[in-house]
Design a protein that fits this description.
The protein is mainly α and 259 residues long. Helix content is 42%, strand content 7%. It has a domain at 22-35 and 46-67 and 121-230: Cytochrome c-like domain (Cytochrome Bc1 Complex, Chain D, domain 2). The strands form 3 sheets. Strands 1-4 form a two-stranded antiparallel ribbon. A two-stranded antiparallel ribbon has the order 2-3. Strands 5-6 form a two-stranded antiparallel sheet. It binds heme C (HEC).
Amino acid sequence: MMRFGIKAVLAAAVLAVGLSAPASAAGDAKPPAEMGWQFDGLFGTYDRNALRRGFQVYKEVCASCHSLNQIAFRNLSQEGGPEFSEAEVKAIAKEYLVEDGPDDYGDMFERDALPRDKFPSPYPNENAARAANGGAYPPDLSLITKARGGGADYIHALLSGYEDAPEGVEMRAGLYYNPYMAGGKIAMPVPLLEELVEYSDGTEATVEQMSMDVTHFLNWTAEPELEQRKRMGFMVLIYLTIFAGLMFFSMRKIWADLH
Ligand code: HEC
């Protein structure tokens, strides 16, 4: 009897901690390939180098249309992330301008970003963003891997999955064919082309590589505490195992004495 109890506790704990099945993408969209990410599973961790390359792709490509307004520059140096040095973070922040104010005269002004600032939007407001993108709004990317069914697999497939529209499919100007998008049409032009960035670590910048890396990075922005959470989950499992063992032996002793 007791043995089943222990197994049940362990099974429940494993279920609770680990393996959350990704929801499937909506509608008629092509299902994305499962990529088997290093951050998946009970012992998942981020790959520092992939995070740094992914950040480079975000900064040099995606940031011209998409904000990252849940992430401050200084988060880039925190444990479990890309772990840039503080000097590197300062230098990255300095490349951006943020609005501040009002000053003593009541005027807003622009200044270099500081590590405590969030990544700013490339547009002054939503209308400007829509006007620049044929009416479509480039969403903030901070939580995008959580906000879409299929998660990281979907983002990767979308970025690397543009195709020519199949015969018979009418494409309005400003829309592009992508079978992973529900409805097959997306207002985002093909964002990644071979060798679009030059990786500072020498990795070859194929479309596949860049979409893997930037998705890795965007999973971190959506879940910066993932490594800590998984470590904690593992500790809880060990604790539960020991606790269940203690319970087993003490119950046995109590019942033995009663007979
Ligand atoms: C030229 C501007 C532009 C660039 C550059 C760009 N995007 Fe987009 N993106 C858009 C627009 C516009 C939309 C909204 C598309 C729509 O709703 O049809 C969008 C939508 C998205 C979506 C949401 C798709 C969905 O399921 O609704 C994701 C994810 C995304 N972009 C990721 C990226 C990433 C990652 C990069 C960099 C590799 C990038 N984008 C570069 C303009 C851009």
